[in-house]
Design a protein that fits this description.
Number of helices: 10
Largest sheet: 8 strands, antiparallel
CATH class of the largest domain: Mainly Beta
CATH architecture of the largest domain: Distorted Sandwich
Distance between the termini: 132 Å
Number of domains: 4
Number of strands: 29
Strand content: 35-45%
CATH superfamily of the largest domain: Glucose Permease (Domain IIA)
Helix content: 10-25%
Shape: elongated
Amino acid sequence: MSKVIKGLPIFFVLILMVIILFITGFTSKKSEVIQNVYQVYLDGEKIGIISSKKELEDYINKQQSILKNKFDVKNVYVPKGLDIKEYNTYNEKIDSIQSIYNKIHKEKPFTLKGYVIKIKSSDDTKTIYSLDKDIFTNALKKAMLTFVDKDQYQLYLDNDQVEIKETGSIIENVDLEEDITIKEDYISVDEEIFQDEDELTKYLLFGTTEKQATYKIQAGDTIASVADANKLSPEEFLIANPQFTSANNLLYQGQEVNVGLINPLFSVVVEKHEVADTVKNYSTQIEYDNNMLVGKEYIKQNGENGLDRITKKIKYVNGEIVTVVTANTLELKPVINAILVKGGKVIPSVGDTSSWYWPTIQGYTISSRFGWRWGRRHDGVDISGTGEGSPIYASNNGTVAEVGYYHSSMGNYVYINHNNGYYTVYMHMSSIVVKKGQVVARGQTIGGMGNTGRSTGTHLHWSIWKGGYPYQGGTVLDPQPFLRY
């Protein structure tokens, strides 16, 4: 071959070289044409190359007619984790839009444009998804109104509450304990997306969208009895069944009611200024006459209730009183205590079952009654409003059975054995002035009201037990029916 080339004239060799250079130069230029393409990543992994980002987005939107009909939207968007990056290249193989769509559809859910709502408390964050933020704001307002009087709340919003001249109450502030943020974002269609206001209201109140437990009314049922049988307070029953306006509403046989436990995702804080005329119950003072036979007695002086006008600042959380501060007390009518004379002084360590003593001074508020509260039985009454350090009295004669300090739930507490089959328990005290084994008399100061242990504010938790030691075989009873002031 080399001999042949050498034998060719120089002219032909030059022509041959020019032709070769021309051909190779032409093909080289053709291969160096720059292409503008898009690399598609799904969760960081390359899944293909496309020529148009918009074409893929439009194709996804066109193919997802079922989602658009289900959620009543015009557009469906790419999934979370999908990233499309533009770059320039040579001779890259371009994937079809359909093939890339199929890969995406198989691996990840598509998204819709909507709102991500976060409800953040001190120890938890709940996330809610909705396509319309008005659905959330309206649902939240509905849910809040289960804990706030609708008419009074509207007057508060309109700054149109009537000034208190003698007695009455006004709302001073309404707020939520939680921080709520609303952010527009793309939401995966596999999330629970709320489209219905009532459904979201239910979720905000019960913490679930599952069907709540129901009960069919039987003959003789009352709201109180149905609530108690299902670990609800009457107030919680009314929240779960807004068609009833009062615990005194009548029920009819066969009627179906909700008995699910509420578990609100929010805490409505209502601060009220209240002025009320409060009956100051008289006490019965017992005197002993050793000239009379034991068992004989007579009334030396009849008692008369007094009347106080009390101004209070009351804080509610989800309808439950958590703090009460008495700002002022005006005596309208003084109290006259009854005096009962009994024959022969009885052993002071034995309590008289016919005469129990209220354990605080007057001007109190019962912030939580005996019975079910948030699915747990409240084994006593909570008494507040008399102030930090105000005296706590023994409800009857007895012997101090137990004294405790700094208990994680009870705080500072006292148990009294009345030596008649009954015990009384006093919790959350700020101070204790009696000792274990000490004999105390009915109405004797045993300590001060406080806020120790697991407590939401200054108050006394007071309970009566029968037939055994408290929390160790005894039966707890509602203390209020025992009282004869």
